[in-house]
């Protein structure tokens, strides 16, 4: 089927508008859509929930929630009340503007009430993915100086609160909670709290959300976003996700990752859309069922998920009514042309690739419904955004030259700081003009960008970003491991898988049992998605004279490529 013959909606944002605004869009136009345009005082939770609750959308469903044991829905009015109750409870225990409140729990309606309530008191939300194990949880709570944690009894054993002196309160979300010491009963306190709350109005540059993400060196870093990001969450939900009044929208990402907040909370609700949240694990059957049950019209997911659906076979799809789907988009890793063609075949719909990252806070380079897509390309920059390919000095390269994908500093949802690490923040920019993404890409003569790979050693596995350093640090804590080097190995479904090269300590011998034991060690200590799928033992690992493992040599070994310049390698 030809792309042009598609009957799907082309979106309200037309090509002429795009071309007119490209590179020159004035963001103050978007500010005028919000009540704070004149006062300058803002709160995203007001704009995303209360504004609709006080309007004709009051009884519109804001949240549809489903998992194996729950099936619930909440209107904007109910979301306003629940989040007000959370805000009252937080205020009562002394949470103030700028405090960090972390949420570590599986998806559930309470997670969303908690995030919105935190924002209403002016505090900063720190979402943690439920799969994190103790070391990962501790690093993040410690670095951020979190004052409050909202979690479940099941996950509590992964929270080493005796080692976290700044953590003052832990809310437990569950049944029959005994309040004692720092433990508080979330549900009971919320039920007893008032449904009215005076929102804390903050400045547009005040902290909103802190997402920890991985780089190739050092511990995970806390990427801070501010309330001003809402301008871009709103505008991209309109232009890129093409959300309209009657849409039923489903973003499959967990709020532990930036996609699950920017486009699982802010974007859709700023637009007043009905938002579907499905808890539990991925399965092709339950995903297709969810689309049918809710009549999902706009769907935002990731290449790994699409590839898994693709490998589940096209016969399965025929059992479901997926005819409501109007618009599909993808983020997180390269979207193979193969997947785009599959989407056209089975959904009669194009999957629109979008490019952005935790640090950018919102979509930047995208395929728009109004535009011809080039399968394999990430698309074109959002109006108001200047993207370029620059060399290592920050000089712009011409079309087709491969280099660093960079964005001109100052877009509304740009990270405002790296928590406790201003030096690292500064190091992300070149010439004080370009934010350098760490991705390499080129631009073609039509202005479409084409992803080529990471410049650094960051691993993208199933759309999740894993820092090799974090995995290596965990590996060497195992008694049998002397040295470890970790790389991403290309994989047809997951994009990359994590592969570890390990040199064992004296007295240990390689065996399948040891491999399994080491894998479990990382799984239990860090997170399941961070555990190496493959482990290979070597007598010695390639290192620089200063003792750094040379991952590029490991990668060359793995891929049978030339190892390149070895002048810095030790003997
Ligand atoms: O390498 C790029 C890849 O994901 C990285 C950002 O990861 P994270 O901060 O976890 O955010 C993921 C979702 C916003 C990028 O540096 N990436 C993201 N989108 C794409 C992509 N790679 C290729 N194509 C994309 N569309």
TrEMBL record:
Q: Which InterPro entries match?
A: AMP-bd_C, AMP-bd_C_sf, AMP-binding_CS, AMP-dep_synth/lig_dom, ANL_N_sf
Please give the Pfam families that the UniProt record associates with this protein.
Answer: AMP-binding, AMP-binding_C
Q: By what name is this protein known?
A: acetate--CoA ligase
Documented EC number(s): 6.2.1.1
Q: Which UniProt keywords apply?
A: Acetylation, ATP-binding, Ligase, Nucleotide-binding
Record domain AMP-binding enzyme C-terminal: where: 470-548
The kind of enzyme this is, by top-level EC class, is ligase
What gene is behind this protein?
acsA
Is the Ribonucleoprotein keyword given for this protein?
Answer: no
From which residue to which does the signal peptide run?
none
Question: What GO molecular function terms would the record report?
Answer: acetate-CoA ligase activity
AMP-dependent synthetase/ligase domain mapped to chain residues: 51-416
